[in-house]
Amino acid sequence: xxxxxxxxxxxxxxxxxxxxxxxxxxxxxxxxxxxxxxxxxxxxxxxxxxxxxxxxxxxxxxxxxxxxxxxxxxxxxxxxxxxxxxxxxxxxxxxxxxxxxxxxxxxxxxxxxxxxxxxxxxxxxxxxxxxxxxxxxxxxxxxxxxxxxxxxxxxxxxxxxxxxxxxxxxxxxxxxxxxxxxxxxxxxxxxxxxxxxxxxxxxxxxxxxxxxxxxxxxxxxxxxxxxxxxxxxxx
Length: 235
What we know:
By secondary structure, this protein is α/β, with parallel strands linked by helices. It has helices spanning 44-51, 74-77, 93-104, 110-119, 135-147, 165-180, 192-198, 222-229; strands spanning 3-13, 20-29, 33-37, 59-64, 67-68, 78-81, 153-157, 184-188, 201-206, 209-215.
């Protein structure tokens, strides 16, 4: 068992808000897919932003491979598909890829890039500007950018949003492939079928707190997850 990510009592409180993320602790192993469930506003995206260092935490510690996380931690070792598309909308898919490859100093061939685009039916759109793409196409390309450097830790915030069933299957296959290669993946979704199918372990976040941890061996069913999600089960 190789622990890649270790979060210890991390927390965050915002000014002018009653919301607070309180003392979240968990570990993520190499090759593990961890699901996050909880209602809107429970704190899932806040947790992702703290882990990714996009938002400074107020308390707690984060360790990567046993070392405290510093400001340079996520430059090369993490991928983050957030709910915000942060690349250049006036540039084409190819131009955005060229930019990311140059900035990250990636050794990746054109054949590998084209194969990746083909997996998501984006090869024919390579010369289209991002602002000409549909929501689903943008989501797929955002996923490609987040895995282009083969991160060891991957955060996926609602990755299936806007995708059709065929596109979802392609993304699921890649998520499983990356896990098989040793990536630790944290995945949030309101689609409990996908959480149930993909994840080895599930973190239930409720009102800013880690209310329950469910592993594959717990025998929980999709119905149990639905009850948790709808706050119908006492925790």
